[in-house]
Design a protein that fits this description.
With about 210 residues, this protein is an alpha+beta fold. The protein is built from seven helices and eight strands; from the N terminus they run E-H-E-H-E-H-E-E-E-H-E-E-H-H-H. It has a six-stranded mixed β-sheet. A two-stranded antiparallel ribbon has the order 4-5.
Length: about 210
């Protein structure tokens, strides 16, 4: 955005803080009537973009979960040495949607039977996973996975893991957040080249 010459801030306006792109992102506050779920589905740029389109989702934060190192960096996770998966923390309005619907949205934006990663991204950081916030979410996630397997609509058994309730989430660096918005050219080329949407269409059909 370009400002016209002579434009200035109102006297009492405060400039937006300049964020360190390599610092972990600040987590959005969870307001009354909102809940949070955490999901792994391959590249977090893509899963974040997908969840941003879901009605009722009010915030998404890319990050890491499931490993053994506290506050890992992108380079550490990408090195496949920390045990973390790339994940997205999803904040949703419970007056508009619920956890069961968020689970259904998740399933339909990943390949649940692929245990080795997602699409062109291979290895542990890109595996699918569900990270329940509490035991109620853990029970719902397990029931959802059982129902998906029982439907026999997929090419094989569901490989998505359900992690222990309360598994720590670590926000990724600021430059990863909203990557589809801040860097649309690079994001679009990556997503197309990775074949994510083409594969999803084959797995689930056009939705």
């Amino acid at each position: 955005m370009f400002l016209l010459a002579g434009c200035s801030q109102p006297p009492n306006a405060q400039a937006a803080p300049v964020l360190d792109p390599n610092a972990p992102a600040a987590l959005p506050k969870v307001a009354a009537g909102q809940s949070v779920g955490v999901f792994a589905g391959g590249c977090f740029w893509c899963l974040e973009s997908d969840f941003d389109k879901m009605p009722g989702v009010v915030a998404t934060t890319s990050g890491y979960a499931g490993g053994h190192v506290k506050s890992p960096t992108y380079e550490q996770v990408g090195g496949h040495s920390t045990g973390h998966l790339e994940v997205v923390r999803v904040t949703f309005d419970t007056a508009i949607t619920d956890y069961a619907k968020v689970l259904d949205w998740f399933w339909h934006h990943v390949d649940p039977v692929d245990a080795g990663g997602q699409f062109c991204d291979r290895g542990q950081p890109y595996q699918t996973g569900i990270f329940p916030a509490d035991e109620a979410q853990a029970t719902a996630a397990a029931a959802s996975r059982v129902a998906l397997d029982a439907a026999h609509t997929l090419a094989g058994p569901v490989a998505t893991r359900i992690f222990p309730a309360g598994t720590p989430f670590y926000a990724a660096e600021n430059y990863h957040q909203d990557f589809h918005v801040t860097t649309p050219g690079r994001y679009g080329s990556y997503r197309l080249g990775c074949g994510r949407d083409a594969k999803l269409a084959l797995i689930w059909g056009l939705r």
